Amino acid sequence: MTFTGRHVLLGVSGGIASYKACTLARRLVDSGAVVDVALTASAAEFVRPVTFEALTGRPVLGSLWEPGRALAHISLARQPDLLVLAPATANLLARAALGLADDLLTAILLARSGPVLAAPAMNDAMFAHPATQANIATLRNRGWSFVGPVVGSLAEGPSDRPGRMSEPEEIFAEVERLLRGPASALRGRRVLVTAGPTREMLDPIRVITNRSSGRMGFALAQAAYRRGADVTLVVGPTLLTPPYGPAVERVETTADLQAAVGRHLPTTDVLLMAAAPADFRPVTAATGKRVREEGALALSLEPTPDVLVSTRERRKPGAVVVGFAYETEDGVAKARVKLSRKALDLVVLNMVEPDAGAEVATNRVTLVTAERAVPGPVEAKEDAAERILDAVEALL
Where in the sequence is the domain holding 245, given as residue range(s)? Predict the structure, then answer.
């Protein structure tokens, strides 16, 4: 995602989390945005203005009383596409909720009619206080969006209650959702993504599974969330940390996956079946571990449910359904068979290659429909996810 031509005003208030605003400012600049930074007087005690000037390449805004800025708060309220407050301290939220305008940042907020995203950061008791909760409710009612706070270590030590500011990458995801979402056909749509392998038990210790890591499905879920979708991610066993944003449901077996998909299917506008279910399971799973000394082991296997086929009669009318195929040969022909047999709108084809597909961070996908097959380059799975979602939006 590029924010070229977009203008973001980053408001920084005085808290220990102010240092994270530096990372956020750099992330926004690297995305192509024009970034102005407005510091409160207390924020400038934590991070000096020259730091933000070096990161953004623009003068830092600090006072209503600087020469030439008599009406700066009006233009800075109107011009930016988005105003981000990170960190948003309890004091800043209280002043904003009351409509105070006793410094440059609060004057900008009082004159602002466009979107505002706040990332609260404070002591957990301060966040839980009824006054803070009332102020946040007031600001939500005025149209503000919020990200966090989260549970984690605070300046004074560990805590099991919210108060810690969300990480810069999580804030950036919400920035992208607010800036990109309004123009996306996925905005407000319910998107269901499946990811990772499933595994079938041979005995209490051993399983049948495959090499899927879940990276492609995770990239799709995060990209759909950033486009403004309401995303649920159903994920099989994986060591990956789920992406920020989507609701996550964990499953183990193919039957579990089928049940989870079935629960969400009636309200799903877009189904992205990036999971790699195990195709076979033991007819009977052993109740105890079979030891090597017993000699050769013969397994009797049966097919697992075909999850995509099972959805055919229960899909929401007009839903876009995307299947994934991982093949060793005759990929496009096999993808088209799957397209027809499973009544899909699109098949994302992966061929087995050393630098694409399972267990690596890159992929080479071919987007297959009944009319054409569009190959792509070897690219990061995050970039492949964007191309896939571009194709999905064209089908909505």
Answer: 184-395
